Amino acid sequence: MKAAVISFPGSNCDLDLQWAVQQIAGADCELIKQDQTDLSSYDVVMVPGGFSYGDYLRSGAIARFSPVMTALKDFADAGGYVLGVCNGFQILTEAGLLPGALQWNRDLNFICEPVTLTVDRADTAFSNQYQVGEQLTLPIAHGEGNYYADPETLAALEANGQVVFRYADNPNGSVHDIAGVTNAAGNVLGMMPHPERAVEALLGGTDGLGVFHSLIQQTKGADIRGAR
Amino acid sequence: MAHVEMSPTAIAEKKSYLDLGLTEAEYDRFTELIGHQPNDTEIGLASGMWSEHCAYKYSKPILRQFWTKNERVLMGPGEGAGVIDIGEGKAVVFKAESHNHPSAVEPYEGAATGVGGIIRDIFSIGAKPVAMLDSLAFGDLNQPHTQHLVDRIVAGIGGYGNAIGIPTVGGETNFDGSYTRNPLVNAMCVGIMDKDQIQKGKAAGVGNALIYVGAKTGRDGINGASFASSEFSDDEAADRSAVQVGDPFMEKLLMDACLEITQQHQQALVGIQDMGAAGLVSSSVEMAGKANSGMALDLDLIPQREANMTPFEIMLSESQERMLLCVRAGFEQEVLDVFAAYDLDAAVVGHVIDGHQYKLYHHGKLVCDVPVSSLTDDAPVYEQEAKIPEHLANPAPDFDPIVTDPVATWKAMMAMPTIADKSSLYRRYDAQVQTNTVVLPGSDAAVIRVRGTHRALAMTTDSKGRYLYLDPQVGAAMSVAEAARNLVASGAEPLGITDCLNFGDPTKPEAFYELAEAAKGIIQATKAFNAPVISGNVSLYNETNGHAIYPTPMIGMVGLIEDLSTITTAAFKHADDLIYLVGETHGDFNGSELQKLQTGGVSGRLFDFDLEAEQTNQAFVLSAIRQHLVTAAHDLSDGGLLVALAEMGFANGLGAKIKVTLPTSWGFSETQGRFLMTVAPENQAAFEALNGPAKLIGHVQAAPEFDVTTVSHHFSVALGQLQTAFEEALPWYMNQKA
Amino acid sequence: MFKAKVYVTYKPSVLDPKAEVIKTALSRMDYHNVADVLYGKYFELKLSGTEAAVRKQVDTICDQLLANVNMETYRFDLEPITEDEA
Amino acid sequence: MFKAKVYVTYKPSVLDPKAEVIKTALSRMDYHNVADVLYGKYFELKLSGTEAAVRKQVDTICDQLLANVNMETYRFDLEPITEDEA
Ligand SMILES: Nc1ncnc2c1ncn2[C@@H]1O[C@H](COP(=O)(O)OP(=O)(O)O)[C@@H](O)[C@H]1O
Ligand SMILES: [Mg+2]
Fold this sequence. Notes:
The complex is a heterotetramer, with 1 copy of chain A (228 residues), 1 copy of chain B (738 residues) and 2 copies of chain C (86 residues). Chain A is α/β, with parallel strands linked by helices and 228 residues long. Chain A has 5 helices and 11 strands.
């Protein structure tokens, strides 16, 4: 698997994602800038967490005007795999690559803590190493992670089985306890919890590794170092 | 509120320098030093540079006595931050800074810009910031004003740290009435670097350029340094001009760009310093002073956000997110290009010149021409008079607690705001970004691994204002000891400390006495734990309407763990592990949380402190941990033995059964130098063979229940009951109406 | 030259947590005569061009940047200003 | 019954990082005719009472709650509304 992580000005989980994919999951992973316009050499492009452009207007709102986003749209349209984590998820919704929007957490406070997720779909490019119903512990760290979609969109999401992860105990007010959702085609996933923060036992758990192993499995080729 | 310029004669006649915080004697001294009547700009610079914040004019005689060097210290106080060797080619850099006054006026931005400021100190040394800690003190939490301050200050710290991507991994939150109008907001930042890349804030080499980078200068926070060096009164609460808005996005770019320069453009860089208190003047003149250089700046080249700023305003503005670099002649473009790639405003604004004068030009006119030393080394230093405060000269009688219902007291103690769970606050901080945090907030010290080595760093902040109020010297030594105890419980060996000395008005003999005595205690204890002071900060005038805070030195300590497998946390791990109490317990209650619970305050003579026993106990605990004989360790501090025991049980829902030969009330005594540890049954013999100062008092049990036998009582309580009291106290208080 | 005053608010169907917090705060301040609170963002932009062009442009800026139309709505007023006011 | 429209913006001397970032975004969208951006908050409150009382109350609410007077200024308009509109 050849992956890239897009580093926007203000991204701050870019190096963490790269570390998880490269040092821990053992796949190729490059950091690229927001002005990159050609993504054709990658299997997977990841949009990291952080505060792109300070998140000053709305989280993710400004990043979507970066040159790389046009390329990312083409990449996704062509079937490339796109993973957005936290701010990455927010950027993907702002850019229209994923449905819905992320609103301020129900209690208006930033929340950093481990949460329990339930795997809803184990047949996606991002979750094929998990079992349906499996419970995962992943950290969240966000102020605007309260997923919102209007009723029709929501009904369509559920009907198409686009919800991949749900909160077991909803921390932020997200509709239908949605923690991670794909586009209709299933090749773009956005999730608020941070899988890259749960890949080493030393740091408290390895439940997030499955996301990266799933992508490696999906894109074949690369060998998986250290089974889940 | 724009600044109106006055002529040198008008300044002398109208004595307008008095409004800037300079005395007549200081005005005369400055006039003599510079050899002419100071003009408006010059007197403004003096007021900033001669403030306590920049010149340490009252605290210097105290700070000089600190113990600042051992074999590991690479750089002590004097630069942006201190540096200590941690082996394997790496060094740790750390410093703490207070932002008490700004946070009292505007809690969110005051706290946020405090975080921003301390981060700049760390990366100006060339270190990558890897962790933040925050030490907070507030008034009583049943006051709506306090609730508001807690909410906004915590939001501000998180707002900045979370956005810039530095994990906030620890800290402390204390509550006492003395902080009602003067909350303490001390932020500490820790960085890691290759030990051969240390940068200094100096401007040397005639012809070398000064490059300004970062946010444009505006009229925000003008002369905040002298603002922070005076007391509050009710009128000044309405003085709302000294507020800046933090921009963590800008600082992230600035940090990344500056680190790129310190790491990859070393041949271009002579020196680098952040613009903190007294903004452009302090950073530039200090850089010249350290290299014994002269300097000329052209103020028209300073990036400005507002029109028609006067030299006074430009030089004393405390706009945030700015840095000053001295760059070798010929390399200017190379450095400007790096900044341009990050979309940052940067400009060459001046040069190092021959001689020792500090010259400023504005619209082609020379507006300041003074010796560099008149603003730095020649600033006044005062030896103050010290006088023992009345409550120390004639202490109240000893407090002797009576505990008739042990379970009720235990629950009430768990809910004391200073003791209660702080997770509702620290969950608002990203503690994990950068993915190095091994021990999260909630245990004793936080632990960060050092990438590229087998090592980890443990870090903590501790302050004990209540103890210092009853005995500043012993209380300060206890603060250092508690910090060390927290590190040791995590498996770390203390490396060094940074401090924020939060005190009252130093011109009052009683307040100065407290400061001088506290320093003595810090010196004794730092030597005892081989943890020199490598950096720090002073915040005086923490008074409102004449009422000072408790004297509160904040101790930030960093320790080294050489082997990741020896990292230890406070949580019980397994049922049947044996519980040992390390250290002697006495009836030590004056200044304790139990005294506060039962009497509403603290009074009397502070209980004794056996520094030697503390050293012995810490050495024993560390050695047992390093031999892998310990499954959990927790230091005893606020609330003593029973509080610590309960805290150890909460994380994994494990109870305990213990028996102690102490009176029940002594279960809440705060005798120093103690730990609780657990040892797996199979290691009992090996552990006891160490012959340490540890006594077996019971064991961990699977049942979520604590069962305690003392000489006077036998009682048991469900873990859940104590945990509810512990966890719900802060959220409950925060929702109280007046 | 025109000044555009832009108002961005949540769609009525979206619960706005910030407005809720303000309501709670008002009732803590014992203001029980406040019936309703709406919270939004307010922008002023100064733009040059013909009125029609500016109107179209502001609409695009709102739609793509200033509001997230998945959960927010916007409206704006244009008023002509002189160069001095700009 | 009155509707109060409240505008809260930064004081002119305070740096507004949000407005700066919006300006950057507009120039990336190739809108070079936008001269200036102001970013603020907008509130609508509905309140009952006499005009004078309501005016005084809204002023207090702004000063103590809606605006942070350390760095923001506010202004508001009051308009009478009927019970139906409320
Ligand atoms: N303001 C804060 N920010 C971050 N962490 C905090 C804060 N207040 C308390 N904590 C964390 O809560 C835990 C308990 O704090 P404290 O009771 O002060 O510990 P100790 O008594 O061991 O010094 C620690 O892990 C500490 O880092
Ligand atoms: Mg402790």
